[in-house]
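Researcher: Next entry in the queue.
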Amino acid sequence: MNIVCFGANGATGRLLVRQALTEGHAVTAFTRHPEAFPIRDDRLQLAGGDVLDPSAVDKAVSGQKAVLSCLGVPFSRKPISVFSHGMANILQAMRHHGVRRLACVSATPVDPRYDTRGGFIFEKALKPVISRTIGRTMYHDLRRMESLVTQSDLDWTILRPSGLFAASSITDYQVTGGLTAGQFTSRTDLADCLLRQLDDDWSIHRALAVTTVSGQPGFLRFFLTEVIGKKTALPARSACPPAASEGRPSMGAACGRRPL
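Model: Structure for this entry, 260 residues:
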């Protein structure tokens, strides 16, 4: 399948591109710095551009069968609009070229039913720090992005991972239309789940939670590497540019992993 990946040069994006190429897809990797993209393959096309540039996005979407978006920016207290503005350009390009299938990454805290079963430390320390302070502007823009996607007439799926962390391989992750008690999701699992949406009609018009089952990092490791580390790292771009739980038994077969 011809697919374009937005956010291709991010931590999840690179995993997604590698997995898609391994499975035989023809991939267009959209990145602002194609010269720095570390992957090369006969089925890989590099598309240089900014997701905030409608013409660059339109060109990348042309000729594709599906769009996978794992856009990301560092946590910031400043206003963020990359997700919503970028998605607006993606949706416009998809309509222009008649591309219908879209799977995009959001985050678990965006769900209005955000779970409260994470334990004392997670609830009293980690979640307030991220959701109400350094993550507040990011989650606000992700909500705007989700609103644009859900109001579109396209065949969309929204994936909401928990706290993202690095892992070496795909695990027995869980996918559900409801909330889970899981605190973390590996980027490898998230990339795999994004790919599984390409041939899963059940997930169309659904927002799904994705959670890694085993091998999750401890609270301290996650906070130091994925929260503090990402916040203090130099950002790749400016942050601000000019109902009830449900599951499906066959979802595990479609995703290759355990459903709820």
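Model: The first strand starts at residue 2 and ends at 6.
Researcher: Noted, moving on.
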